[in-house]
Amino acid sequence: MKSRDISRRVFLRQAAWSGAALTLAACLPAEGHGAAEIINPVTDKVTPGTVLMSWVTIDPTGRVTLMCNRSEMGQGTFQALPQMLAEELEVRLEDVNVIFAPANPEKYGPQPQEGSFSVRGWAPRLLRAGACAREMLIEAAATEWKVPKHECHAENGGVIHRISLKKLAYGTLVEKAAKLAPPRGVVLKKRADYKVIGKSIPRKDIPLKTNGAAVFGLDKKIPGMRYAVIERSKRFREKVKGFDDSEARKVHGVTDVFKVCRPVFSQFCEGVAVVADSLWAAMQARKVLKVDWEDAEFEYPGSQSLEKQMRENLEKIGPQPRFENEYAGSPQKLEAFYETPYQSHTCMEPLNCIADFRTGGIEIWGPIQEPNWVQADLSQRFDIPIERVTVHMTFLGGGFGRKAFPDYPYEAAFISKEIGAPVQVVWTREDDMTAGPFRPGAFYRLRSGLTAQGKIHAFQAHTATQWIGQEWSPIPPAGPEAASYNTGDFEGLLPSYKQGIPHYSFGGAGIHSPIPVMWWRSVFASTNGFACESFIDELAHLAGKDPLAFRREHLPDKRYQALIDHMAKLTNWHLRGKNHGWGVAFTECFTGICGHVVKVTRNAEGKVRIEKVIALMDCGWYVNPDIIRAQVEGSIVMALGAATTHATTFDDGKAVQQNFDTYPMPRIADVPPIEVHIMENDEKPGGVGEPGLPPFAPALANAIFDLTGRRIRRLPFSLDDIS
Fold first, then answer.
1. How many CB atoms lie within 10 A of CB 670?
2. Three-state SS for 671?
3. Is the dihedral of CA 462, 464, 467, 470 positive or negative?
């Protein structure tokens, strides 16, 4: 597992094409649709336009190399993918080496690490690639022994003849197997026969990350590399009117000071770069740099003005007559407003990137979450052929969507071109937390009508927020009156509610703001989930029904019924005591379903304390339970911070929170005991890294209501303020 093993990669590629190693690839048809096929580049014709992905190579020593086209930012890709390959290939897990594939969509297909896609995206083709290679090696051995293929089987990196008990290691068979065509219709193992998949095998990347051997972006060094930091405006989209670098240039080691720009969607933000032969010198010089900003003709929003705009837009969203009629005729009605704030990504590893813009090309190294986007963006903006932009991925210390954005690689390339040398641009924590992009804040208006029997007859969710998709367009969003209804899923809400509620209505309106916004872990499920699952709880209370049973009543799909039943059993829901508060919530995003039960009680001072969180994940077919538990636990800790300790607010066009002193993260003592359970079923593989976050905030708020009778409709809130 050496992300820096370039020479090995080159060797493997050359060996594959020469037939000295067995290499298989997943292939997408040139026309861009249809299922991926497994091909052998030696025997199969690769037509122009064909997309090859997920290279798997077995060399003459029997070593297996998986070329991973996605980033590893802590989510466990570098463990789950080898487990899948080892299972079907019949090799030991420790014999599978993983290396990062450089950005190249023509060879490795789409490479964004987003949407909790690692396992659910890779499983179909990686399992088949392993099975194809296994069958080709068996066939090669059978030919060598001149025995029927069905008398042979693969095991532990070799092929065994069942009758004679002769064995040949994979490495001795690869040359012969490389001349065979991959079998079509290969049969995958049954789940009951798995030996590696489904096991909590310790991750191979953890020792590297604990002993310092793993190469993150900040660890990477290039010969002759310089360092740069950038003084950026604290207001969004201001321009540099002028600067005085006389004092900055006196700092020993400083070599250059000049104006730079950073593309932020369809806009540009300006700044002044300080370049030095050490990061320390660059940071010291930045402190004495004086920049005069041009701030005329720009909008400077504050949190109050943003909230006002969202509230006004909520009220302007046009009615949907069908819902209005059903709502008006309902015996019981309820209306509530919910609010969620802007959030910073605050990845533990601050943004950084190395660029070497020389010899007519650009080479990038860094914590990159979306290498294809970076490659295409730099190619277009600097007008150089895309094949001359090389993007190398390192390990990421968290991403959460932020490190998919190509602005910081652009800055590095810009500066490298200017100085004619490789450079590493480093963002400070303050840079990261004030420049964005941020998760957008959102306001919700929810209304529902119940039948006389206490069932939901009509359900409506309206939202006003900054639409992320609008960021790419300079055209302001359409007015709230133009809101359309039910044009897509209401992200986070369980789809089965649409079957259990006769009349539902979703609509929204965007607001315009210069504040850049972008994907944040679980995207809009993180805000929609809080509003909707809290409101469902309110409806259960209005109907006088148990909140878990109330949900079951409106979720007719068998999968959700099983999920709720299992949650009731896990938590002993029927034993809820009067001196404790129990809250439940379920959400779904990126094909993963997760439910949380949060238990709260009062401490000696009478304040609310989280006693325990019980999470139940239904991600269908899965690979490594321990990775799932770790992802859900991490999601809960992140959700705990977003719900109770921090938010990004704005004043006069600037982010107020600049570091962890004003944007506090949960401490170890704040994190309650967490139990994570996994549903066992035969559903297709679903997402894990993001679905575990959205249900926490509503489950906590519902638990607090159960204990105190106080309904929380705005995040964040302080547990210390609730008694």
1. 15
2. coil
3. positive
CB 675 within 8 A of CB 602: no
CA distance 522 to 114: 9
Q: How many helices (H) and strands (E) does the chain have?
A: 18, 27
Quote the tokens at residue 79.
Answer: 């463990």
Secondary structure class of 22 (helix, strand, coil): strand
| Residue 6: per-residue pLDDT | 38
Residues 248-257 as b or e (16 or more Cβ within 10 Å = b):
beebebbbbb
| Distance between CA atoms of residues 687 and 337, nearest Å | 30
Q: Which of 430, 425, 368 is nearest to 393 (CA)?
A: 368
Q: For the chain, how far is it from start to end, CA to CA, in angstroms?
A: 51
pLDDT for 46: 62
Low-confidence ranges of the chain (pLDDT < 70): 1-19, 28-36, 45-54
The beta-strand segments (E) located in 277-422 are: 290-294, 332-340, 352-358, 361-366, 389-393
3-state secondary structure of 209: helix
The pLDDT, as a whole number, for residue 30 is 52
Selection from 526, 528, 537, 476 nearest residue 507 by Cα: 528
Q: For residue range 690-703, list pLDDT tens digits in order.
A: 999 999 999 999 99
pTM for the model stands at 0.93
Q: How many CB atoms lie within 10 A of CB 321?
A: 8
Q: What pLDDT was estimated at residue 20?
A: 73
Q: Which residues is 23 bridged to in the sheet?
A: 57
If you ran DSSP here, which 8-state letter would residue 502 be given? S
Rounded distance between C-alpha atoms, residue 154 and residue 165, angstroms = 12
| Whether residue 695 has a cis bond before it, omega within 30° of 0 | no
* CA-to-CA dists, residue 483 to 208, 312, 505, 591, angstroms: 50, 14, 12, 26
Work out the burial of residue 169: count CB atoms within 10 Å of its CB; fewer than 13 is exposed, 13-18 middle, 19 or more buried.
Answer: middle
Q: What pLDDT, in 10s, does the model give residues 69-98?
A: 788 888 888 899 999 999 999 999 999 998
Q: Can you give the pLDDT at residue 2?
A: 40
Backbone angles phi, psi at 359, to 5 degrees: 50, 35
CA-CA distances (angstroms) from residue 208 to 7, 369, 682?
Answer: 20, 20, 34
Query: Measured in whole angstroms, how far is the alpha carbon of residue 276 from the centre of its chain?
Result: 34
Residue reference for tokens 């094949």: 387
Question: What's the pLDDT score for residue 36?
Answer: 64
CA dist 678 and 669 (Å) reads 26
CA 169, CA 578: separation in Å to the nearest integer?
64
Q: Would you state the torsion angle of the CA atoms of residues 252, 254, 255, 257, taken in this order, to the nearest 10 degrees?
A: -140
